[in-house]
Amino acid sequence: MTTREEAAEQLRVIRSMMERATVFRALSGETALVGGAAALGAAWVSENKTGWVWAGVWLAGLAAVLLFNVWQIFRVAAAKNGRMWTSGLKLAIRGALPSIMAGGFLGLLSVRGGFPAATSQAACFWILHYGIALLAIREFAPKSMVWLGWAFVIFGVFALAAMTGLLGTQVAPVMAYLKNGSRLMAIAFGGFHLVYGAAIVTTGRREEAAA
User: Fold this and answer.
1) Closest C-alpha among 81, 45, 198, 182 to residue 126
2) CA angle, 188 as apex, 32 and 45 as ends, to 5°?
3) How far apart are CA 201 and CA 16, in angstroms?
4) 40 close to 186: Cβ distance less than 8 angstroms
5) Which residue ranges does UniProt annotate as crossing the membrane (predicted)?
6) CB atoms within 10 A of CB 37
7) What pLDDT, in 10s, does the model give residues 19-51?
8) Which residues pair with 109 in a beta bridge?
């Protein structure tokens, strides 16, 4: 390997490390806290709603969080005189988008009947696929985000199994709770994000190394 090739390889490694840090900052602790609070608010508003109305409440909350996240990315990029639309961010979106689209479609397909139980099924699809989306970008994310992804996947599988009766009567006391989509979403998108965001903001792990 020539000196020029070695320099190019070192530049590629440095750029890769910088892009990983950019991706982590794009999914900041502040965004997780806002997302968690928005999820709890959406759960309260949608508690007794079903069908498209229930889904509309959650999609409105999602839109608000996405707008905040875009503003957060723009603010951080402007403060560092950097680019907002980085190649690392593009890689993360490409990795997460298939699962997000599949889960979103399955959830909307579930709620179109308007039955109360359909909201629980939709919530399980959204929780499970969001967790898979986080794990899909694990190569660019810190360990804390990988743990968050696994928390969503495990909770989504457990809720789906309990809701469909696969766990038998052992979880009978929680069955009534799990048949409420708003409460499932509150636990996962509200609780998990608040814990994750608080851990990132209060422990100084914003610059945590990629996993």
Assistant:
1) 182
2) 90
3) 25
4) yes
5) 21-45, 51-71, 91-111, 117-137, 149-172, 184-204
6) 16
7) 555 555 556 888 999 999 999 999 999 998 999
8) none
Query: 82: closest CA among 74, 71, 90, 91?
Result: 74
Q: What angle do CA 91, 92, 94 make, to 5 degrees?
A: 65
204: left (phi over 0), alpha (psi -120 to 50) or beta: left
- As given in the structure block, the two tokens for residue 48 are 């007794």
209 pLDDT band (50/70/90 cuts)? very low
The model carries a pTM of 0.83
φ and ψ at residue 30, rounded to 5 degrees: -60, -40
Give the CA distances from residue 107 to residues 92, 136, 139, 156, in Å, rounded to whole numbers and listed in that order. Answer: 22, 20, 27, 13
Whole-angstrom Cα distance, residue 120 to residue 97? 23
Tell me the two tokens of residue 204: 């100084």
Q: Smallest Cα–Cα separation from 36: which of 211, 200, 150?
A: 200
DSSP per position, 166-181 = TTGGGGHHHHHHHT-H
CB 151 within 8 A of CB 183: no
How far is 92 from 43, CA to CA, in rounded Å? 28
